[in-house]
Amino acid sequence: MKAMGIGEEDYVDRYATTRNLEEIQRHYALELAVSPPVRKRVEQYCAAITKVLRLSNEIGPEFFTGEIEKAGLHWRNPHADDMTLLMLVEEHGNRRDEVVAVLTERRRAVEHWLKVGGDTYHKRVVTKLAVEPFLRLLIERGTISRSKLLPRSQLAQLVEALFDWLGVEQKFRLTSVTIATTARRLANAKP
Q1: pLDDT confidence of 29, banded at 50, 70, 90?
Q2: Which residue, 46, 100, 138, 148, could crosslink 144 as a Cys pair with Cβ 3.0–4.6 Å?
Q3: What does the DSSP 8-state code read for residue 171?
Q4: pLDDT at 3
């Protein structure tokens, strides 16, 4: 390698950097492969959960903890008599409450996703899986000093090159101010 003017240290460093960049690309591509569904479908899903919870309340918890629970136990134990089923219901009778709790928690999570979904979701993916690892790499390699950051325009150019390489859509790209803020936060973080 010295004959070509590239020192062995430079070659190893370039190889390591290339591997790091390929790892960023791989993680980002994996997250994009699991892209979220269309917002309208998620809204329909949330409405369906809400409807099930409303119907559960209208039908009444006694019916679910009594008759439905008993029917489910009878289905799994077809030869059990009524007294055995009633004892099993008493022992396992809180399932309706567990189902309601799980559905309520799921609805809250879906509602939260709807609040922060869409473009915000994609921007978070870009930030967490592309920009932050890239900026950490620049800090580790000494391109960005912990004591003095690159000028915002140079930093933005480097990240724009990353965006081009990863194929990040224009609407999901971060502004130069956000990039500089993220770089400052990462540079000031405890190593």
Answers
A1: confident
A2: 138
A3: G
A4: 46
